[in-house]
Amino acid sequence: MRSAVVLAGGSSRRLGYDKGLRALAGRPLVSYAVDTLRPLLDEVMLVVGSEAQRASYRSILPASVKVSVDLYKGGSPLVGLITGLTSAGGDYALVTGCDMPFISTGPVELLFSLAEGRDGAVFLKPNGWIEPLLAVYRVDTCLAEAMRLLRADDLRIRMVLRNLRDVAYVPVSSLSVDPELLFFDADTEEKLADAERLIMGRDA
Q1: Contact at 8 Å (CB) between 64 and 110?
Q2: pLDDT tens readout for residues 160-196
Q3: Residue 11 backbone phi and psi in degrees, to 5
Q4: Which helix (H) or strand (E) holds 182?
Q5: What is the rounded CA–CA span in Å between residue 84 and residue 182?
Q6: Cβ count within 10 A of residue 148
Q7: How far lies 176's CA from each of 69, 145, 181, in Å?
Q8: Is the dihedral of CA 181, 187, 192, 194 positive or negative?
Q9: What's phi and psi for 95, nearest 5 deg?
Q10: pLDDT tens profile 45-92
């Protein structure tokens, strides 16, 4: 069984409102990630920061998408990861953000195939940074490490995979899609406008 965890519990400080609910080319931003992942995986869940958020997202998402509220305070991606992995029914879970509208099938399948039998798989950028919000996590080992980091007050989500020994690092140069588009995060008004132009151009 394969799971997906979409994080939507952040405070969206840059925008001043809940970005996942923001309309993008006529659809809520969150729906792009959710609709891409639903046909690929056995379960898709959304992690939010409050009961009010849960009600708002529940009203726009398919009934099959589980919506969970952060188990701990703080609203950090690490807390969202812990909440999602705690609820995940699969042995492996793809974790991503609600503001990434251009996730595509090929990279997701690649991550799952390379994660099999390991602690996870993550894309590695030329500068040595990893992309922890488009990565596959082995649920049991990654949850244990995420909880250890939380107890140590280290909220850096990237350290979950960095600290585990058996992780597949996938160079972005191996991708058959544009990595700039794949990792595009629509977290400002300018980026949302860029995303809308890209989507409308595709549909033209």
Answers
A1: no
A2: 999 999 999 999 999 989 999 999 999 899 999 999 9
A3: -85, -10
A4: helix 179-182
A5: 22
A6: 13
A7: 35, 31, 12
A8: negative
A9: -120, 130
A10: 999 999 999 999 999 999 999 999 999 988 899 999 999 999 999 999
Q: Which residue has the tokens 């400080």?
A: 13
CA–CA dist 165, 181 (Å, integer) = 29
The token pair that represents 156 in the structure block: 């850096």
Give the angle subtended at the CA of 77 by the CAs of 82 and 52, to the nearest 5°. Answer: 85
Cα angle: 107, vertex 42, 116; to 5 degrees: 50
Count Cβ atoms below 10 Å from residue 107 Cβ, excluding itself: 21
Amino acid letter, 31: S
| Residue among 131, 143, 169, 134 at smallest CA distance from 81 | 143
User: Could you write out the DSSP letters of every residue in 11-79?
Assistant: --TTTTS-GGGSEETTEEHHHHHHHHHTTTSSEEEEEESSHHHHHHHHTTS-TTSEEEE-SSTT--HHH
Claim: this prediction has a pTM higher than 0.90: yes
Evaluate whether 157 touches 133 at the Cβ level (below 8 Å).
Answer: yes
Instruction: Tokens 């809940």: give the residue.
Output: 18
* Number of residues written out for the chain: 204
